[in-house]
Automatic annotation (TrEMBL), chains A, B:
One example of a Gene Ontology biological process annotation: polyamine biosynthetic process
Membrane-spanning ranges: none
Protein name stated in the entry: N(4)-bis(aminopropyl)spermidine synthase C-terminal domain-containing protein
Organism encoding this protein: Candidatus Shapirobacteria bacterium GW2011_GWE1_38_92
SUPFAM superfamilies: S-adenosyl-L-methionine-dependent methyltransferases (SSF53335)
Length: 316, 316
C-alpha cells in the first residue's frame, strides 16, 4: 500500500465518519505500534466512544489482522503504516518562529486599531497560540477556514502552516484587507479576502462551505449574536463544523457573560471547550487585557436566531 | 514586617476584595521583582481588570513606593516581600507522588464501583490531575472544600497537600465513607465525612460554608440539576464561590450536552472554564471513557432551580 493510497484512504474515512483526520491518524499510530491495544485500550487512548471506534475498525478492516483480541495492523503492513502515521503527525507540528518572523516583518504596515470597530490587537504570542491550538485540535489539515474579521492576522499564521485547503478572510476594514492581500501575494499564501460588513448579508455562495470559522467579534450581545449567525451560515452542517469564538469581560460583570453563554446555547451550539484568559491584548485594560477562547461545535439542532439587539459595536 | 504579618495581610485583603490568595501572591511576586511594572503591565500579567488592580494597589499602599510610574515595593521591604511570595508559591506545588503512593497503598481496600450509584472509577492519573488543577487555580490554600460523592478519592489527594482549611465529603456509600475515614485517621488528614443521600436535604448547618464544591455526579439531567442545587446551597455567596463539575457524553449525542449546559446556565452559574476530555475512567466506554471538567463560578444571580426531572441515577 503506497503512501498516497493511505493518505486518500484516511481522508475518505475521516470525511465519511465525520471524524477529524488527526484522530484517524492517531488511531493508525496506536494500531501500528509495538504496544498492543484492545478495543477498550483504544477507546481510552483516543477518547472515542466505543461505537465510533468500531466504525473506524470496520472501515480499516482490510489492513487489520483478523480475529485478534488486540487491534493490530497486518504484519506486512505495520512498518509502512507506522511510518506514514508518524510522518503525518510530524507534518502537523507548527513552526512558531516562522509565524513570528512573518508578522514582525510586516509589523510597521499594520493599521492602528479602529475602536469604532472594537479592534484591539492581540499580542503576537496570542496569534501564535491560536494557530498552535488549531493545529493540536486537528483543525488545520485539509480544512477550509473562514475568519470573520482578522485584525490579529491569524489567517497569516494559519496560511504559513500550508496545511489548510482554503482560507478566506471576511473583513470590513480596507486597511487590513490590503495588508493581508499584500502579505499573501508576496509570500504565495493564497488567502482569499472578501470585503464584508458583517452587519450585511454574506454572499450565499459562501454558505456551508467552511469546516471552521474563527472570530474575535465585538463583545456586545448584538455583536456575538450577529457574528454567530454569520458563522453558522458559513460552516458545513456536519459533526466537524466548528466555531472558534473569543469573548471577554470583567470578572465582576459575570452576569454579562452568563447572558452571552445563554446566547451561544440559544443557537444550539455546544460549548466544547472554554479556555479562560486564553487571549492577551494590548489595551483592553477594563477586562484585564485578556479574553476567553470558546470552541463551539455544531449540533444537529444548531440554528441561526433572530437578532433582537441593535447594538453591534460598543460605540453603536 | 514579619512573615506572619504579611501572611495575615494577604489573607485579609484576598477576603476583602474577593480575590484568590494566589492572585494576591502573584501580585506581590511582580511588584517585588527586579523587572519594573506599570499598572498596565500588571493588568496584563495578572489578567486582572484595571479596577481590581487599583483596589489591590490601594490596599497595599503602605508597602508601596509612593508616586512612582512603576508599581514597586518600598526599597527596604523588597527582599522580605520577594522571599515571602516565592516561598508561598513554592508551598503551593503539589507532591504528585505522595498522592499516588497513598492511593496505591489503599487500592486493595477500594470497593467495586456501584453502577446503581453511577460510580465509575477515574484513573489514578485523573485523581492527581484534579488535585493539580485545583492547586494551579488557587483553589486549595486556605479553602473550605466539599465533595458531593467521592468514589475517586480526590479528597485524599487534596488533604495530602495540607493547604485547605477544611475538607468535607458528602457520600451515600458506606463502603467509601469507611475507607475515607480509615485513610484520614491513619494519616491525620482530618477529613470530615457526612453520610448523605444527595436526593435528601443536606443539614442546613453546612449551607454557605464552602468556598468550593467538587462533584462528578450522575450524568442525567436530574442528576446534574440536583447536584448543582446542593452545591449552590453549600457554597459561600461571593466571587470566590466555585463548583467543579464533571460531565461527559458521547460526541454524537451533542444535543444532550447542550441541554446540560442550558441547565447549568439556568442556575445563573458562569462556565468559567470547560476542559474537554479532562477526566479518564476505567469503563464508561460508551462515552469514550472520558468526561469534561466544568469550572463554574458563582454570580450575583446564581440560584437553585426547581427539580423537574425524576430520574437521578441512570438506572432510576
Amino acid at each position: 500500500m503506497i503512501q498516497s493510497e493511505l493518505s486518500s484512504k484516511v481522508e475518505n474515512i475521516a470525511q465519511k465518519l465525520e471524524l477529524r483526520q488527526l484522530v484517524v491518524i492517531q488511531f493508525l499510530v496506536l494500531i501500528s505500534s509495538k504496544l498492543r491495544y484492545t478495543s477498550r485500550g483504544l477507546t481510552r487512548k483516543l477518547g472515542l466512544p466505543q461505537v465510533h471506534l468500531y466504525r473506524l475498525i470496520h472501515e480499516f478492516s482490510d489492513i487489520l489482522e483478523p480475529k485478534d483480541v488486540n487491534i493490530e495492523t497486518k504484519k506486512d503492513l505495520t512498518g509502512e503504516i507506522a511510518n506514514y502515521a508518524k510522518k503525518m503527525l510530524l507534518g502537523i507540528k507548527i513552526n512558531q518562529n516562522a509565524i513570528k518572523e512573518m508578522i514582525n516583518k510586516y509589523q510597521k504596515n499594520r493599521p492602528k486599531p479602529d475602536r469604532n470597530l472594537d479592534q484591539f490587537n492581540a499580542t503576537m504570542a496570542t496569534t501564535v497560540k491560536r494557530v498552535t491550538k488549531l493545529a493540536s485540535n486537528g483543525d488545520l489539515v485539509g480544512k477550509e477556514i473562514a475568519f470573520l474579521g482578522d485584525d490579529d492576522l491569524v489567517s497569516i499564521g494559519v496560511a504559513l502552516t500550508h496545511q489548510c485547503k482554503k482560507i478566506t478572510v471576511f473583513e470590513i476594514d480596507d486597511r487590513l484587507n490590503n495588508l493581508i492581500i499584500q502579505i499573501s501575494q508576496e509570500n504565495n499564501l493564497n488567502i482569499e479576502v472578501v470585503k464584508q460588513d458583517l452587519r450585511q448579508l454574506i454572499d450565499k455562495s459562501h454558505f456551508g462551505k467552511y469546516d471552521l470559522v474563527f472570530t474575535d467579534p465585538p463583545y456586545t450581545k448584538g455583536g456575538i449574536n450577529l457574528f454567530l449567525n454569520q458563522a453558522i451560515k458559513l460552516i458545513k452542517k456536519n459533526f466537524l463544523g466548528r466555531i472558534y469564538l473569543c469573548y471577554g469581560n470583567s470578572d465582576r460583570a459575570r452576569e454579562r457573560e452568563v447572558e452571552i453563554q445563554k446566547l451561544i446555547l440559544d443557537h444550539n451550539l455546544i460549548i466544547k471547550t472554554k479556555l479562560n484568559q486564553f487571549n492577551k491584548y494590548y489595551g483592553a485594560e477594563s477586562i484585564g487585557s485578556q479574553s476567553s477562547l470558546y470552541i463551539l461545535d455544531w449540533t444537529p439542532s444548531t440554528k441561526t436566531v433572530e437578532l433582537n439587539f441593535k447594538k453591534v459595536y460598543t460605540n453603536d
